[in-house]
Amino acid sequence: MNTNIVVLGSCMIDFTCYASRLPKPGETILGNEFKIKYGGKGANQCVSAAKLGATTTLIGSLGSDNYAKTYLDILKKENVNTTYIQIQKDKQSGIAHITVASNGENSIVVVPGANDLLSVDQVIHSADLIKNATVLLCQFESPLDATLQALRIHKGHGLSIVNGSPVVENIHPEIFQLCDIFCINETEDDDDDDDDDDDDDEDDNNESKCKVAAIYQDIPREREWESASCVTR
């Protein structure tokens, strides 16, 4: 049976400079390499699933710039359905400005751009697609209200997975109720604080918890993908 995976997620263009070290505040230094790559958690996950043979569709948002056209061309080459990616007029695509030192240390500035405009209305417009998905995959690089709406639509129609990264505050408890698997990387897990909690944990409403919680090891790696390679993180 063919697996139909729908990803609600982000599209990011990474501008990466490589240098011997990171610059100090106000300092200009010479670098030794520069790369432009296409990533974002949503797109990374979608391309990875397509490479494994799944039928994949990305629900996302890009700006009205030249990078968006290149982005769509690469996704199509990777056999990702781009029908549900909206182009936002007069808005830039999401970007990350990254500086990487030779020792692996890095600094990153992310400008979400068009990703912030992925809306509840866009999700509702994609309702039939979401209902027919074998797996719905979401993460927190997209607006939480859109993520919540997608989970509501998909409830009872298949497996839902939420990658709880990056860490955000004030997550709507219904997200945990609706998703089947909630996963975070080990550096973002704050369960150690639970040791200080009272026995009130037993009184927590179990309906606010997902069926499975997964913690995966945070292994350093490049965050981008090209037409020839893809990673998830």
From TrEMBL:
GO terms for biological process?
Answer: D-ribose metabolic process
Query: Where are stretches of biased composition, namely Acidic residues?
Result: 188-205
**The keyword Chloroplast appears for this protein:** no
What the entry lists under Pfam families is as follows: PfkB (PF00294)
Q: Does the keyword Transport apply?
A: no
Q: Where is this region: Disordered?
A: 188-211
The organism sits in which domain of life? Answer: Eukaryota
**Keywords carried by this UniProt record:** ATP-binding, Carbohydrate metabolism, Kinase, Magnesium, Metal-binding, Nucleotide-binding, Potassium, Transferase
A GO cellular component entry from the record: cytosol
Domain Carbohydrate kinase PfkB, chain residue ranges per copy: 3-188
Q: What parts of the sequence cross the membrane?
A: none
Q: Kindly list the GO molecular function terms attached to this UniProt entry.
A: ATP binding; metal ion binding; ribokinase activity
Q: What is this protein called?
A: Carbohydrate kinase PfkB domain-containing protein
**Protein's organism:** Vespula germanica
